[in-house]
Amino acid sequence: MALLMTMNDIMNDTSGKGQYLVVSAQPGDARRTSQHPWSYKSKINCSPGHYPPDYCTLTKAYFHHSDRIFYLNTTHSIPNPAWSTQLWTTKTVNIKSDIQCHHLYHKAFIFTFFFYYGHSNNFHLHYDTLIPIYSQLRFIESSNQLPLSNQSIVLMPTVEKKRMEILDWDTDAFTSTYKDSYFMEALKVLTGPHAFLPMSKASFNQYPNAKTCFEEAKLGTPRVEFTDKKLIRGYISFILRRLRIKKTTPKAARIALIKRTNRRLILNQDELINSVKSLANIELVDFNGMTFKQQVKLMRKYSVLIGMNGAGLMNGLFLPKGAVNIQLVPYKAQLNFKEFGSLLSVRGPYLEWHNQHEHLNHDVPGDNYHGQADTIVKVDEFVELIKKALNTGLNAKLQKRVKTEL
What we know:
Elements: E1 4-5, H1 7-12, E2 20-22, E3 33-34, E4 43-64, E5 69-73, H2 83-87, E6 90-93, E7 99-101, E8 103-112, H3 122-142, E9 153-158, E10 160-162, E11 166-167, H4 182-191, E12 195-196, H5 201-204, E13 211-222, H6 229-243, E14 254-258, H7 269-276, E15 281-285, H8 292-299, E16 304-308, E17 324-329, H9 337-347, E18 350-354, E19 361-362, E20 374-375, H10 379-390, H11 393-405
Parallel strand pairs: 1-3, 2-7, 5-6, 8-9, 8-13, 9-12, 14-15, 14-16, 16-17, 17-18
Antiparallel strand pairs: 4-5, 4-13, 10-11, 19-20
Helix pairs in contact: 3-4, 7-10
């Protein structure tokens, strides 16, 4: 199938169908000329998705820079309701004239980018963006659909102004202000060798009347089986490889307790640290101000990561093989602890503690779901939790090694 037509091809085509004509191409965009016409008759297919709740594939579509709409050349109607085609406005047209494309890509992934300035955190960054998009890139690579060493694939992140309703075209998420942030660094790790075209005014103002065309464009993210060991462990290895972080293992048991600074605090963290010092080396870890690579690299030093339910626990994905993750959950809290547990247990050994003592719970006024509550963790239960972790997975092996050396 041709991806680029010369002017001669267009002039001599008598099929009566419009053609893509790339009028400006950048080196390495994996386009080639051909003597065979290529119709841009479009198709759309939607299936259940992860975020938004449907995942739509547009075949032979184009995006108009000025009106910010995806166009399909078809007489068929767009499935309704379809969250994806509403969030990323999609319309049908019925034309036979030629389409002049500023860029033409084999595959495009258009998705919501969750980042801190957009009132998100790195749980949603990984869970709702990076892992689902990685699953699609992994599928392309495993099925040998396209060579991944060039820019035939484009990633087009967007930021929402209103959840699943309005895009923020004025966002500065992709500008120099945030270019070195944790979130952008992580997104660039995923982007890798692929083309990167953020959906913001800044990206399209240079060519306001141009069209970007796609053989296939995916709107949203697909449903992902987060209990799929091959997928999650493949994602972990992919991140480590892209960041060039070696898969090191600590020589002795070492525990990291995550420090939280805004909500769901551990009110007696110093007491907890002192209670287990005789069992293993334990340190308080504060991820604030650290880059994505620094956080991932730091995790390779520990055999246990323990923390209250929160985004910092996502770093537990990058612990050494066999290391233990421990999630602490506030009293009767209605939180996403099951999603955390699912991911972390697929990676390796996982333990979970729930505060069962109402008097040790410190609620925030008005929080009827206990999701923001601070907690005094019962010391004897914490000690038993750490003992169990030190006899599990990698820690059990490290303990045997120490006894052998003695």
